[in-house]
Amino acid sequence: MQLDSINVLDRAHYLTLWSRFGPYERARLDRLVYRRRLLFEYWAHAACLVPTSMLPWWRRAMLDYRVRHTGWSDWLRRNARTLRQVRDAIARNGPMANADFEGRRAGGGAGWWNWKPVQHALHYLWMSGALAIHSRRHFHKRFDLLERAMPAAAAADAVTSDEFRRWHVERALHAMGAATLTDVAGYLTFPRFGPGGRRPALAAMRASGLVTEIEVEGSRVPWLALARDLPALARAARRPAPSQGTTLLSPFDSLLWYRDRVARLFGFDYRIQVYTPGPKRLHGYYTLPILHDGHLIGRVDAKAHRAEGRLEARGVHFEPWFAAGRTPPTERAAVDREAALAGLADALGSLATFVGASEVTIDRVTPGRLRPPLARALRGT
């Protein structure tokens, strides 16, 4: 699950779980991560929560980071002392955040901590496995020694580089069900294996029967799947609808990580526009795709007004095919528009509950003729 600091609604990892399970107690997730250590923070696609059971594989990425990322070479040579002092300070003092180094004298020498080198040192020590993220306060990371934060897990031996690459491919394929080679590269984007970096692993997995090629109608490139996932794919193909229910997806949901795949499978062009200047945004600042019965039917630009206890849907933009009542790009049967609007109203009500809002307001709806039935559905929740 990807982490992100934007808090216009809630943090990305909290929203991702809400979209699957509905409202829940955030503190329970925090306890699983920072007390029970069933998940830990590392760079998988971006900063993510990953299962601690997978640490032997990510340990390989951590060890390889020390030699693969040569862009650090000059910095490490110039800042070896800072790196050592940061690690020693954490070893001596316990969990520390970036801000804890402000105003501290560097151990063993004169002068004040230089903020930027310390920040880089913390990041490098985390990525290379010397440190782990112990906890967060107000979403600010607090670092501790890996062996102290996760003693049992840290004792696990790292897998080999070949084992890691095969596992990396296996994780991506299992998550996506079926994928092209480009899809696999676009899912877990760290580490960057480079052109052809996954091909030896895939060749070995195909030779052993773990991975098989499947035919996808209309595709000019090969699609791959894990042999063990073929029965599940066959069952999915027999369903009248890909899935059932309506939810809103976090912009950082893993379903959306590789945008080209989303466009191919759903006919849905999605871009995160939080860093786009306001006048150039097409659909708003923090837009949540609407997933209904396995189709992406539109998006909601949402904002939580916490002081007012209000969830504002600043913009609801439906896909043209949905608004016109046409068959979806997936070429399955047309979507029941009334049921979809009712589902969206329920999802907005659930999201309001989750972010602590007692009221949902809707501003602009595109096309405008769908605003009245959506408002009626919302009043009926």
Concise synopsis of the structure shown:
With 381 residues, the protein is of the alpha+beta class. Helix content is 40%, strand content 18%.
What does this structure look like?
There is one protein chain. The relative contact order is 0.10. The protein is 40% helix and 18% strand. Strand 6 and strand 7 (223-226) form a beta hairpin. It has 16 helices and twelve strands. It folds into three domains: 37-154, no CATH class; 161-238, Arc Repressor Mutant, subunit A; 246-379, Aminopeptidase (3-Layer(aba) Sandwich). Helix 5 crosses helix 6 (115-127) and helix 9 (161-176) crosses helix 11 (199-207).
Radius of gyration: 23 Å
Number of strands: 12
**How many DSSP H or I helices?**
16
Series of H and E elements? HHEEHHHEHEEHHHHHEEHEHEEEHHEH
Mean pLDDT: 92
What general outline do the C-alpha atoms trace? globular
For the sheet with most strands, the description reads:
5 strands, mixed
* Helix content, binned percent: 40-55%
The CATH level-2 architecture of the largest domain is identified as: 3-Layer(aba) Sandwich
Would you tell me the structural class of the helices and strands?
A: alpha+beta
Q: What fraction of residues sit in β-strands?
A: 15-25%
Count structural domains.
3
CATH top-level class of the largest domain: Alpha Beta
CATH topology of the largest domain: Aminopeptidase
Distance between the termini: 30 Å
Query: Unreliable runs, pLDDT <50, ≥5 residues?
Result: 108-113
